[in-house]
Design brief:
disordered N terminus; 2 helices; 38-stranded antiparallel sheet; mainly beta; about 10% helix
């Protein structure tokens, strides 16, 4: 009984086993077919007025004629006729105006096309146009990858946007990024500039050109060269980077980078900025420059330097900040310098903390501990105003606490003049005449013709006029009851040989143009007694 029941149980379970296995097999087969269907390339679909097939003429090729419409993925195309190679999922289209809608905003036109649907590559030729919402690309032949949304041409092309026309021999257009990279005899033309270079990147949406090779920008006003940077043609704003040069009539500008807004007419330069104007005879240097064309001003900082060229002589001016005001002809009218000011000219050098220079009137005003050196003479006061009449004649006005020092005997002794206000007249780097008004004092050494010392004269009065020759006093005119004494050399101590508030500041004097960048004079006066 047991065996019989057991055999019956086996017989009953066998069909159930095969039934379950069948279900599992069918389920797995369905998954496999589904996956295979998903991985298999999607065929191109066609619609046309008629379909022709001739196995003898074109085996395996469907020929569609009249109002052909073909679709594949997101692409829809229209042509007069088409050949479909079924085994390759490949088509060839013909027509006077083939149109392919690649997406909602991108359309491709031409007269002959091939489409490899498995590889998703369109090749279109003859009067090709690729148009989107922002621009149109014209070329004779274009290859377009629909999966990566990348098209390129190798036989020359022209892109037209709202304000720009770009041409090149080679172009790679990434339509999803609105970006085209142009190579070979590249040119961009708009109302402001004509740009030429070997390669260029351009964003069709923002209308921004990115410079990726040495580029030349030409306009009616100037010529610009740059290695890198960008130019937003819609906003007329540009950033030029790396070996930038600007040529504008008699002006030349160079620097590491320059930002310029043409609408605001405002520019900023960074690092190694040099501006040269050969007609106006000035040079501006610095590592940071701001220029306001409408306001006619420039501000230079960080190693700032202004050079004013005049009759084979130049004035070199340095400060922490230099501000230059220009007239409508871009000629400097007024220069202001702030903090740690020093200047050098062959016949005159100076130092102070602030300075104002009226270029046309040749009037220079110095503030905060100002000092001027000319030849062997040092002039100082609370404020100094001097007039450069020409390269040989200078008139100096020392306002409040005026002091003139002339060195003798290798800077061991000093002629000295001080007063409330002093006017000095300098000719050919020699102090020729001095007018002292208010609390006038002088101490000078009287010498024989062989330079032997006669004595030391000290005088005091309210006013005096002094004439000098070869740095020696030749005559003095005293006004209002002068008090003067001639002292033998041996009768005066070292302290008595110096007038009150005497300072010899030769350590701050610039002996060459390079020296103006070093050893700035303190903002406020420090007299020897205070130092001790």
């Amino acid at each position: 009984m047991t065996n019989k029941n057991s055999n019956n149980s086996d017989k009953m379970s066998t069909p159930n086993f095969f039934c379950k296995s069948t279900y599992i097999f069918i389920f797995l087969l369905g998954i496999f077919l589904s996956v295979s269907a998903q991985n298999s390339p999607k065929k191109i679909n066609f619609r046309a007025d008629r379909l022709e097939y001739d196995e003898a003429y074109l085996p395996g090729v469907d020929r569609f004629k009249g109002n052909v419409v073909f679709t594949h993925d997101q692409t829809t195309g229209y042509c007069d006729s088409a050949h479909f190679y079924k085994d390759r999922n490949y088509m060839e289209g013909f027509g006077e105006r083939i149109r392919i809608d690649l997406n909602d905003s991108l359309t491709l036109y031409g007269k002959h096309l091939t489409y490899d649907a498995d590889r998703k590559i369109i090749t279109i030729s003859r009067n090709v146009i690729l148009r989107d919402n922002n621009s149109a690309l014209y070329t004779d032949s274009l290859v377009y990858h629909t999966n990566t949304e990348h098209g390129y041409y190798l036989t020359g092309g022209r892109m037209v946007s709202k304000d720009n026309i770009l041409t090149s021999l080679i172009g790679n257009y990434y339509t999803n990024l609105n970006r085209i990279i142009l190579e070979g005899t590249v040119k961009l033309v708009n109302n402001s500039y004509q740009m030429t270079c070997d390669s260029l990147s351009y964003n069709t949406e923002t209308e921004t050109a990115y410079f990726i090779s040495r580029t030349k920008l030409m306009s009616e006003e100037n010529i610009i060269y740059t290695n890198s940077g960008w130019y937003n043609t819609k906003r007329d704003v540009t950033l030029l980077v790396d070996s930038v040069e600007l040529h504008k009539k008699a002006q030349f500008l160079t620097g590491d980078s320059i930002y310029y807004d043409k609408n605001l007419r405002f520019g900023i330069g960074h690092q190694n900025i040099v501006v040269i104007d050969s007609s106006k005879n000035y040079i501006i240097k610095g590592n940071y420059l701001e220029h306001y064309e409408l306001g006619g001003t420039s501000v230079v900082t960080d190693s700032s330097l202004v050079i004013l060229i005049e009759n084979e002589d130049s004035l070199y001016l340095h400060a922490d900040t230099i501000k230059i005001f220009f007239d409508s002809l871009q000629e400097p009218q007024h220069i202001q310098a702030y903090n740690k000011v020093k200047f050098y000219r062959n016949d005159m050098q100076g130092a102070c903390d602030s300075l104002s220079y009226l270029t046309h009137d040749s009037i220079l005003i110095m503030y905060y501990n100002p000092v001027i050196w000319s030849g062997m003479n040092q002039l100082s006061a609370d404020t100094i105003r001097f007039y450069i009449e020409d390269s040989s004649n200078i008139r100096v006005h020392l306002i409040k606490s005026g002091f003139i020092v002339s060195s003798l005997f290798e800077e061991t002794e000093f002629n000295q003049i001080k007063g409330l206000t002093i006017t000095g007249y300098i000719k050919n780097q020699e102090l020729k005449r001095v007018d002292v008004n208010g609390n006038a004092e002088c101490l000078y050494y009287i010498q024989e013709e062989d330079s032997s010392l006669v004595g030391i004269n000290s005088s005091a009065t309210s006013e005096m006029r002094i004439f000098l020759e070869n740095n020696e006093v030749t005559s003095i005119t005293f006004f209002n009851s002068p008090d003067g004494i001639l002292h033998p050399d041996s009768m005066l101590t070292q302290k008595e040989r110096l007038l009150r508030d005497f300072r010899w500041l030769i350590q701050y004097r610039a002996l060459s143009p390079k020296d103006i960048f070093h050893t700035p004079i303190p903002r406020y006066k420090v007299i020897p007694e205070e130092e001790n």
